[in-house]
TrEMBL record:
Domain Helicase ATP-binding: 254-436
Keywords, ordered alphabetically: Antiviral defense, ATP-binding, Helicase, Hydrolase, Metal-binding, Nuclease, Nucleotide-binding
GO terms of molecular function: ATP binding; helicase activity; hydrolase activity; metal ion binding; nuclease activity; nucleic acid binding
Pfam families, alphabetized: Cas3-like_C_2, Cas3_HD, DEAD
Ranges in coiled-coil conformation: none
CDD domains xrefs: Cas3''_I (cd09641), DEXHc_cas3 (cd17930)
This protein's name: Helicase Cas3
Listed Gene3D superfamilies: 1.10.3210.30, P-loop containing nucleotide triphosphate hydrolases
One GO term (biological process): defense response to virus
Domain HD Cas3-type: 17-197
Length: 750
């Protein structure tokens, strides 16, 4: 009797010996085991889904067409080959799932159809990329003797979807649809991560070994931060501020054993909430057996600062404990292990941006969704949570609910003010049952108050500059980059004057902050800084005087946190003024208008009453803007139909609507890196790309067009680089107003 030839999942490049290839049976079992294990951690009821996905995901590879392709092409990278349209082995599993007499077949079908190219939309008007179109697509015959057992497998009978909250007043059908899409992404995440890891273990065993798990557990991390804070307390001089920091830390320790769920940590700036919140998170995770901690921070400008602190705390526990994952990660800190960890967040402590975290929760691409199942069963710290965009409030708050209620997370909402997102009758999308870690919030704000806000009305630029020049140490924060650069140019000539904005690359900003501004402040020297609002997001500086252009009260609170931060003076002064120019249309202008309205009603703009009134204006009474990007419309109202537009959802859920274009600038080491890029015959490798990122600036499309028109940009391997060095000022960064096509002789010299 003739023995049936085995079917293969992967070949080995340059090795025709099929006995060394991976069979489909081996690959299916490996993926099924991993994905079932990933989902079992979240909910034992999901394990069967993971097992089934693993067994069906590559059923299309049983076709003779695919087996011939694998043998003739020797192409081990079948993942990218399907994305590029060469091979389709994913549609078969989707069609099999939908052939079963269960509406849940569609949920399986989305994940199987998209496990390489990404979760599809249900219906696409043109083309054949929608799931609806792919279910009717003719695919190579894959049925064989070897597939009969797989075909006979049935779908699980149900999915573990939690019912809405008992006090729910928001549309329950919409919540149900939202939960199904979140569960689909979570199942998808488990499958694609299992598939990547299993394939890597066969194709690149050396790389797979580099993913060795970190030996430190949550208890080890909790002990490390306890020891670190103990050392800080023993070395700190007695002061009212340090006493309050100790009280905040103790409250976090006391709350750590409470039942997982939603918490708020409302501590004024300077109260030590960065380390105290992490102390709570690690102790809470250790006590409840959770898998790790994710820290979400609004802006990259403070991630490096916080991650550096965290690495110092956990240095003794070895490599791989802290994963810093964002666009400006320092390549000198990157290792092989951290690069691999960033693919799926397989690290005990992940420090990232809110942008990266939340956009991943709504993503459709496999590469961005891989990490999702590892976000489950973690403590998630959301720093400065009041900075969430109003236009995405409905889907964002529903996602926070889902993390807690369906995926076993504890979420800590950290703010320097009171919470903005508590459910109430006129705020139906709000969060339920938030527990305050610090019970005496108002009294704490009074004790930590080290500044007084003085509303001073309208100031011309001339008046503002005169007042800044009259101060020895002063910070002025304005709303736009052009305004910041104009004010800086009008200051008196002095080596004590500095400018900060995103027209400076990250390496340049860090150099100015760490190498010039902070040392001068520490030594009590003259230091005048003109900055955009980037300095408000947790940048650790301490000025006796701060001027803040009109803004929202939440931003004003952050600005006040840069004033008399350590309580060295009896009182710091924050001057709230109206500059010559209104903020640009959109969120900034709306926030500023609401801030002005509150300033007309309250004498104390940092009081809990003023802040609550601001949140009512800015969030609670903006119902028509809560889903301005129409994310919920792409999810739909009827969960039973399972007709979700996953790609539309991902496209609509973006913290920044306008896609920025990246320009690499020749500031210091950046010039050498650009030269390496230009002289290479090949596209840059990962290490060069990461190093270049720190010497980049994001521009709007019309700004890049302006530079191209001036002949100031050359592209190497698709990377836009600034060629006219005079356009990058050592104080201001990129100066677009000089891009007039006139090039000074110094720029022409080699």
């Amino acid at each position: 009797m003739r023995t049936a030839m085995p079917h293969y999942a992967h070949s080995l490049p340059g090795n025709p010996d099929r006995s060394k290839w991976e069979t489909l049976g081996q690959h299916e079992q490996a993926v099924a085991k991993l994905s079932a294990g990933f989902l079992n951690r979240i909910d034992p009821g999901l394990a069967a889904w993971g097992d089934l996905l693993g067994r069906w995901h590559d059923i299309g590879k049983y076709s003779e067409d695919f087996q011939c392709y694998l043998a003739s092409n020797g192409d081990s990278d079948v993942h990218s080959s399907e994305v590029s349209g060469k091979v389709d082995h994913s549609t078969a599993g989707a069609q099999l799932a939908c052939s079963k007499s269960s509406p849940l077949g569609k949920l399986i079908a989305y994940t199987l159809a998209g496990h390489h190219a990404g979760l599809p939309d249900w219906d696409v008007a043109t083309g054949r990329s929608g799931l609806k179109q792919r279910l009717d697509k003719k695919v190579p015959c894959w049925r064989a003797e070897a597939t009969k057992g797989l075909e006979a497998l049935g779908l699980p009978e149900s999915i573990p979807i939690r019912p809405p909250h008992t006090r729910e007043t928001f549309c329950k059908h919409r919540i149900a649809s939202f939960r199904v899409t979140c569960l689909t992404r979570m199942i998808f995440s488990a499958l694609v991560d299992a598939d990547f890891l299993s394939t890597e273990a066969f194709m690149s065993p050396e790389q797979s070994i580099n993913r060795a798990n970190v030996s430190a557990n949550m208890t080890d991390l909790a002990k490390a931060i306890d020891n670190h804070l103990g050392c800080l307390r023993s070395e700190a001089e007695p002061s009212p501020v340090n006493q309050i920091r100790d009280e905040v830390s103790k409250a976090c320790v006391d709350a750590a054993e409470l039942v997982p769920g939603l918490f708020s940590l409302n501590v004024p700036t300077g109260g030590g909430k960065t380390l105290a919140s992490l102390q709570f998170a690690l102790r809470h995770a250790a006590h409840h057996g959770l898998d790790g901690v994710v820290v979400g921070i609004p802006f990259t400008s403070i991630i490096e600062q916080n991650a550096k602190v965290y690495r110092g705390v956990f240095e003794s526990l070895g490599e791989g404990v802290v994963l810093e994952h964002h666009s400006n990660t320092d390549p000198e800190q990157e290792t092989t292990q951290s690069r691999l960890q960033s693919e799926n967040w397989d690290a005990p402590l992940v420090v990232t941006t809110n942008n990266q975290l939340f956009e991943s929760l709504f993503a459709c691409r496999a590469s961005r969704c891989r990490k999702l199942h590892r976000i489950a069963r973690r403590v998630i710290i959301l720093d400065e949570v009041q900075s969430l965009p109003v236009e995405l409030l409905t889907p964002t708050l529903l996602a926070i609910r889902e993390l807690v209620e369906s995926f076993g997370c504890t979420v800590v909402l950290c703010t320097a003010t009171q919470p903005a997102f508590q459910w109430q009758e006129d705020f139906a999308i709000g969060l339920h049952e938030i527990r305050n870690i610090i019970p005496m919030t108002e009294k704490l704000h009074d004790r930590l108050r080290r500044t007084t806000v003085h509303p001073i009305g309208a100031l011309s630029d001339e008046q503002l500059v005169a007042r800044i020049n009259a101060e020895d140490r002063v910070l002025c924060i304005v709303n736009t980059r052009p305004h910041a650069s104009k004010l800086f140019a009008e200051l008196d000539e002095s080596s004590a004057n500095f400018h900060l904005s995103t027209r400076m690359c990250a390496a340049h900003r860090l150099h100015v902050l760490d190498g010039q501004i902070r040392p001068r402040l520490d030594q009590g020297l003259q230091c005048r800084v003109i900055s955009t609002q980037l300095i408000e997001a947790g940048v650790d500086v301490d000025f006796p005087v701060v001027f803040r252009d009109v803004c929202g009260i939440d931003s004003l609170t952050q600005a006040a946190g840069r004033c008399n931060r350590e309580g060295r003076a009896a009182e710091g002064s924050v001057y709230f003024f109206q500059g010559e120019r209104r903020p640009p249309p959109g969120t900034l202008r709306m926030s500023a208008d609401h801030g002005l309205e509150i300033a007309r009603q309250f004498d104390d703009l940092l009081s809990p009453e003023a802040i609550e009134a601001y949140f009512r204006l800015h969030y609670w009474q903006q119902k028509e803007r809560w889903d301005f990007r129409q994310v919920m419309d792409a999810i739909g109202r009827d969960p039973s139909r399972m007709e979700f537009q996953f790609r539309q959802i991902a496209d609509r859920y973006r913290f920044i609507e306008e896609v920025a274009e990246t320009l690499y600038v020749p500031w210091k080491k950046g010039e050498q890196l650009i030269r390496s890029l230009s002289e290479s015959d090949y596209p840059p490798d990962r290490k060069l790309r990461r190093r270049l990122q720190r010497y980049s600036i994001n521009l709007r499309r019309h700004e890049m067009v302006q530079l191209h028109a001036a002949g100031a940009v050359l592209s190497f391997h698709g990377y836009n680089t600034l060629t006219q060095r005079h356009l990058y000022d050592q104080k201001l960064g990129l100066v677009l107003s000089k891009a007039d096509g006139v090039v000074p002789p110094s720029d022409l010299m080699c």
